[in-house]
Amino acid sequence: MIAWIETGIVTVQGWIYEQLVQPALFAADLMFFSEQAFDAVEWFVIGMLEIAMLALAFGWFERRWPAEPVTDRRAVRTDVLYTLLHRLGAVPLLVFALITPVVDALEGHLRLWGFSRLNVDQVWPGVTDGPLVSFLIYLLLLDLVDYWMHRGQHRWRWWWALHAVHHSQRQMTFWSDNRNHLLDDILRDAILAAVAVMIGVAPGQFITLIVASRVLQSLQHANLRWRWGAVGERILVSPSFHRLHHAIGYGHEGKAGGCNFAVLFPIWDVLFGTADFRPGFVPTGIRDQLTGRDYGRGFWSQQWLGLRRLFGR
């Protein structure tokens, strides 16, 4: 099945590139971008498959087991736009491609001082270099970085000014994952891409890691009353666990500036004292929305207001 899907992706990717993208590049005298464009087409095809799966599977789940009635359809449509822009775009791949030569150049200088890139999958030859084991190791390490970035998004005023776009959604659905300020997305993707390059993640594996993470994050944001049980809740972030992170009065307050920051694995919240395993079926949003603060209704207003908050206006 997996081989069939991979063959299909390659076939569609080749057709789109040869019939549409390559002629456009040639006509615009931009063939020096051909390699990056070919990779971007792969990302586009994978994104189409992701969106189809989200709409069919997760959409059915939400209709079957909703956590709350969906009353603000306009807000959900805005989130759909964010998802289309992010999943059909190539921002993470583009950032990865731009970061790689920078890290390569830095690595050349560091070698003069006795440092070299960390190839984590070579720590235990014969074990950690296996495809599944190395994938899980990289997923855990990148998730740890993501956890601390998420803490920063809530702790530092300037970063929260951007990240607040994500938390201003009061009608959460599986589309809500990509509701982010564009600067927030670029910064986060750049940090993850840089770390991925430094620990030895290959470009093809980077795509797989990002796609797996994105699908799981969409599930976490879904309008579902799902919990994984006493053990499962401590292994993988559930819709309930993450919804509490978005909840007014829970997700943004307290000594740690909130709770349940883990992106995929709750172990980081357990280890660093920010876990709250109470059911998360409570109202979501930001507290000052209750007193009338405007975070924008549409894409452009949300982006503009995020910039205004960033510069203290």
Describe the structure.
By secondary structure, the protein is mainly α. The chain has one domain. Helices cover 62% and strands 0% of the residues.
Q: Which structural class do you get from the secondary structure elements?
A: mainly alpha
Give the oligomeric state of the chains in this entry, treating copies of one chain as homo and distinct chains as hetero: single chain
Largest sheet: none
The SSE order reads: HHHHHHHHHHHH
Which segments are poorly predicted (pLDDT under 50) over 5 or more consecutive residues?
none
Principal-axis shape: globular
Rg value = 20 Å
Bin the strand percentage: under 5%
What level of helicity do the residues show? 55-70%
Average pLDDT works out at: 86
**Could you tell me how far the N terminus lies from the C terminus, measured between alpha carbons in angstroms?**
53 Å
- Helix count, per DSSP? 12
Would you count the extended β strands for me? 0
Overall number of domains:
1
